[in-house]
Amino acid sequence: MSTLGIARVEASAGYNYADALDKSLLFFEAQRSGKLPSQDQRVKWRSDSGLRDGLAQGVDLVGGYYDAGDHVKFGLPMAFTATMLSWGVIDFRKEIKSLDQMGHSLWAIRWATDYFIKAHPKPNVLWAQVGDGDSDHYCWERAEDMTTSRTAYKLDQNHPGSDLAGETAAALAAASIAFKPYNSSYSSILLSHAKQLFTFADRFRGLYDDSIPNAKNFYTSSGYSDELLWAAAWLYRATNEENYLKYVVDNAVYMGGTGWSVKEFSWDNKYAGVQILLTKILLEGKVGSAYTSTLKQYQAKADYFACAMLQKNGGYNAHLTPGGLLYVREWNNMQYATSAAFLLAVYSDTLDAKNAKLTCPDGQAQPKELLNFAKSQADYILGKNPKSISYLVGYGSKYPIHVHHRGSSIPSVYNYHSMVGCVQGFDSWYRRSEANPNIIYGALVGGPDKNDGFSDDRSNYEQTEPTLSAGGPLLGLFSKLQIAFNGIPSSKYRDTPSSYKPTPTPKPKPTPTTYSQSETTETNQNNNATPIKLVHSITNTWNVGHKTYYRHNVMIKNISKKKITSLKLEIQNLTGSLWGLSLSKEKNIYDFPQWIKVLKPGEQCNFVYVQGGPQAKVTIISYH
């Protein structure tokens, strides 16, 4: 039997992809910044926040999404997420409609695209970021209580960012296709902005994090050529205008589109996405013969990516954990697994529609094998893994409960009315061993290491922090898998309540505010010749399993009569997380955070780090 014209494949192992899809969309509601809607906000423990974003710069930047467990609005991963959500709606429209999720899906896209429209007030201006990662990570507070910097950063002709502008153009072009059947006027607005942003990205070239240096520590860009090809490919799909197709063909070699063979698809590296998208355009058979040869070269690279995932690439295969999860790198590895799974689901449909096979160095593969790989990644996420845990929060009976997420880990403003201060959040809520008071349904955490190991610890941000970019591909992936393997579910497929209210507020545990002299060490280096005093205190301790962790506070005080600038500290034996300093390009060397330019006589600042075992060694290297 077939459903929606899509052939059913072998029986599912029992995972409810429809329920997983429903939850994955809720995550985006938990990440909303700005004025929340009164009727279409199902996550009830969140409230309005960031209502003054952009005000200091005279621009309305209210809205958009917080990136992860923090409150910075980073443009590059947000735009990539919007592109992936839109691609899911475009290619799996029938599946999403049959699951009655089109409304929520379009809402998820529009919350980003409305923000991008605001952020693009002029043809050659794009506001790229709101908030500062350094100051934001120094605090642990709810979005509704934010006291951190909300400085906005823009790209323009003198401060280019072809990668970010190109990705935003791709997002808006893809969204214009997604919205066209439902709101043609809004679709036209999106397309107009997409065209302008692509022209801006192409004409004024440069890396966005060269123009916005404080983004380097968080979302460093490896290049912009892939984003330019990506944007042009999406604009061609949205418009059928030949100049965009000509762009990806003429620049195929120069920009690496037919040169790069990759095993990663992510917010930073779009080559595999470009290659599969252009292969889809090629196989649809609507392009002229002048472009066919180059598009076939793109297809060869698309095949390389797919064959590497299937372990049929002549030894040049993607790395899988012993449990079968795609593994690319340590921090938030799940984002690479979901993106690759989505791409193979798309490519499977593309090949199946043409009754074609994938030819690999180690043999041919049927389209179904690509979809089975996508399913294997989804199943791993939902519980078919050595830990037997769902890495999608709220799905199943066993999932992470100490998610590295500020809003989830602190009681809702509706239950706990007192403001939670910047550092107070660390003392009262971050260090708690209890589960987060608010379940952040649909958050996909960073996931296990290369050996399938996982520690559900709030301080283990590499593994327990969710991100937008990991969640974006899930819309298309879960909708495809549900219809292909399970069919249309009954109306009772959801196993969570229809609204997601805050849980009763646990009382914060008291933490010490004064410390004995034995807990504090003072350092005035170089026999009092240095005009800087370091005071090192242990301000809290707690146990996780059999290991004791310490919260260290280091006060830096100017005891001279002159201003101090350009301070550099060397920190050795640091094994945990640190807040309040900026990591320099030199190993173990730290600078003042972005918001501190000078330390006046008598002034002091602080930084905090958390680790088990002995304290780190802090040494003053230089200053002016």
Which architecture of the largest domain would the CATH scheme give at its second level?
Alpha/alpha barrel
Computed CA radius of gyration, to the nearest angstrom = 25 Å
CATH class of the largest domain: Mainly Alpha
In what range is the share of β-strand residues? Answer: 5-15%
Low-confidence stretches: 1-13, 507-520
In total, how many domains does the architecture comprise?
2
Task: Let me know the number of strands.
Answer: 16
Provide the structure class: alpha+beta
State the major sheet: 5 strands, antiparallel
General shape: globular
The total count of helices amounts to 19
Q: Can you list the strand order of the major beta sheet?
A: 8-9-10-15-12
Instruction: Indicate the CATH topology of the largest domain.
Output: Glycosyltransferase
Query: Span between N and C termini?
Result: 75 Å
Can you give the helix content as a percent range?
25-40%
Mean pLDDT: 90
Biased composition (Low complexity): 512-529
Region (Disordered): 489-529
Main location: secreted
Active site: 404
Structure explained in plain terms:
With 624 residues, this protein is of the alpha+beta class. It has two domains: 2-486, Glycosyltransferase (Alpha/alpha barrel), CATH 1.50.10; 517-622, Immunoglobulin-like, CATH 2.60.40.290. 37% of the residues lie in helices and 13% in strands. The chain contains 19 helices and 16 strands. The protein has helices at 17-30, 75-91, 93-98, 102-118, 133-138, 162-179, 184-203, 208-211, 225-239, 242-250, 271-283, 289-309, 334-353, 367-382, 406-409, 424-430, 461-464, 468-471, 474-486; strands at 2-3, 6-7, 73-74, 126-130, 152-155, 358-360, 363-365, 520-524, 532-544, 547-558, 568-572, 577-579, 582-583, 589-591, 604-612, 617-622. The strands form five sheets. It has a five-stranded antiparallel β-sheet. Helix 7 runs antiparallel to helix 9 (225-239) and helix 9 (225-239) runs parallel beside helix 11. It is globular and about 75 Å long. The N and C termini lie far apart (75 Å). The model is unreliable at 1-13 and 507-520 (pLDDT under 50). This is Endoglucanase. One of its GO terms (molecular function) is cellulase activity. It is found in: Secreted. Its main location: secreted. InterPro entries: 6-hairpin_glycosidase_sf (IPR008928), 6hp_glycosidase-like_sf (IPR012341), CBM_49 (IPR019028), Glyco_hydro_9 (IPR001701), Glyco_hydro_9_His_AS (IPR018221).
